[in-house]
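The methods section describes the discrete structure representation at length, but only in general terms. An entry of this sort, consisting of the sequence and the corresponding backbone structure tokens, reads as follows.
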Amino acid sequence: MKIKGLVEMTKTDITTKLQNIKGSAGKKQNIFALLAILIPLWLIGLSGFLFAYPSFRIIDGHRQWVGDIDGLLMTLILSIVVATIWIFCISTNRIEATIAKGKEFLGCIKSKPSKLFKHALILASIPIIAFIVNFIIHDAAITTNFFLSRVVFFTTTGGCIYLFVLFHKSPDKLFLTLSLLIGFMYVFMHPSWFYAWDQPIHYSWAIESSFVRYVSVSEAEIGNVYGGGRIGLTGRFPFEYANVALYSYRVGTSSITMINYEMLRDVINDELFILMSDEDVEVLLYAAPPLFNRLAHIPAGIMIFIGRSLTLPANITLLLGLLGKHLAYTLIVYFAIKRLITGKHIMAVIAMFPTVFVLSTTIGYDYWLIALVMLGTAYFIRELQEPDKKVEAKNLIIMITSLTLAMGPKAVYFPLMLILYFIKKDKFRTRNGYIAYMASVSFAVLFVVGTFMIPFIATGGGGEGGDPRGGAYVEMGSQTMFILQNPLTYTNTLLYWTRRYLGLHTIRFSSTFFAHMGPRSYASYYFIPWLLLFFVTITDRSDNDTLSSTIKNKIFMTIFSFATLALTATSMYILFTRVGAGYISGMQPRYIIPILFPFAAIVGGFKINNNINKSAYTCIVFGIMCFMLLNSAWEVFVLSHI
């Protein structure tokens, strides 16, 4: 009956989409749109097949073409994904709409060429002016990093001003363009070492995500992981000229994070590698995390695959991976902001915290959790604010899928998924459709819970040991038993810790903190993003919020938020804290960021009429956050080059 209800609910949508596909498939413009994407992708795959990782094997001295079949498989997979997205866009008439906008843009250029010339002149003048001004006010050599960083900074600042002029009436487009521009600057100014949290580990997982069958890792990439956190010197040259060694292992069976660099040298020198029949060298190490836990690294993996296929230097390939992550983050948040009726500025403020930009422009997975929770919550709030409109199957799929995939890196945030149960029955066309939806939500929640609870139970409460960074007295199994045997004692510890966690310490280290950048890790004005968030939480409202911010929803959202915080803290208590301790170690302030938007959007909603001019309101909010991002980059990145 549940399956039948789901079919009945979506039958009309599917029929309409199939008709759209049938009517559009014969149009040449759609075929050309697909080929315009696929042809460059195929050329990249061909380059990977012919040129990727040309090197000399230390053992036998023969040339190895690592790209071969694995690169073609990756190209095939990406082609299938692109084609699937293309069919979806056709079915929703997005291709036609995009082409129509393109034709309109070209028509505007043809009718008013002077307008295009004016914009081109402005864009070209921004970096030129930045170069001249910087040359006048600073006497550093043009070739120094300090001079180049200042030019990039001033160019980005000028570009931001230009974007405010263009998109001050559209919060979603303003966020999209500002995030891409400033994010590119953050990636470009990335220092020559991994400065964010646990980057060497995540970097190895991103590399594994760039392969399909066998992972071939160069000495330069291993040096990035085990070079004291610094990007190795060999990473500054293409692999062929660096004359680096390669080794490989099967995807999902190993991880280079477990390799001791000196031990690898000894193994190479002693020729203890096992030469396989297909001329791959397989090194079996410790098991890598499951794919569900590494989904956040796929955007970086795709860009690393492209960089490797084009035989770019290892450090440039790494920066491409960072850019891929930030591009994914920006697009997800953009579509989330676009979906909202109110609360666009609330989401934008949180998404533009400088610390969040650190997370989205370095190797890690927090950005994935933050962005997808925003997307799923945005779709959920939109459904609450349109009670008379029947829910579409497409929106339900996006809502459930977003929140499910968001939990891949950190499944303990699953209480945030429980908001999905509050979609009312009268939003569905049929009773069976509602039952099918509730069953889908329940399955998604159980799946996410199972990803960490089943291994936890199977090992008897986590087994022995824990995160080695927690110290020698961390024992997961013993800590679990302590909690079960002393529930009141642990509850008191948790509540005491919560009061301290939700204080000045968290506020400071979750807004403008740049992790391991030394004395310059703490950018100024950390309180401004929080004050602005409080302001927009109250003012970015309309009558629609009375439908989503009901007393019932506020109470349950508060419960879900606290439960998420408590579960996250408990996981750190088990993994990272001495057995029986009266404190909780490892619970970093950034862990609160994924909870902020659902909590602020629902719990902070009151019936307030905002009479401020919308364009002025957008410019004020985005202007402050743009200043915070630029000022933080100036203090942390630019001045660090002195």
